[in-house]
Predict the structure.
Amino acid sequence: MKIVLGVLIASVLAFGSGCAHSDWIDRTLVTVDVTGIWRGSMSQLTTGGGEARLELRQQGAKVTGYVQLPAGTLVSGPIDGTVEGDVFRFKDARGILSGELMVSGDEMSGEYSGPAGVRRVVLRRESPPSQPAPPHR
């Protein structure tokens, strides 16, 4: 009986620590560097479009930067984000803009939400990660 109880307790501890360890790894795994200047096109899922530009600096999983969207959108400004695996998520401090982009080398694509609704964006890095984006002025 003691052996069965000991095996059961060891199994529960091993399973529980394995789950916590996996979640911790998933949250901290950074497989891409988004530092640089990114430029590309965006399109509203229903109509319209324009150009988007991001200036990003990454330190570990944390990303800070600046987003510049077409004139008239009124949402250009500083953003904060994170990288988990190959996914870059960001938002602005005002809560007006947020997005999730998949990163693949020097390209990233995905969707962001703003006052004009959901838009699809495809960006290409103009400056390599070894040359951090200059601060926005």
In short: Residues 36-125 form a domain with the Lipocalin fold (CATH 2.40.128.120). Helices lie at 2-28. The CA atoms of residues 24 and 71 lie 41 Å apart.
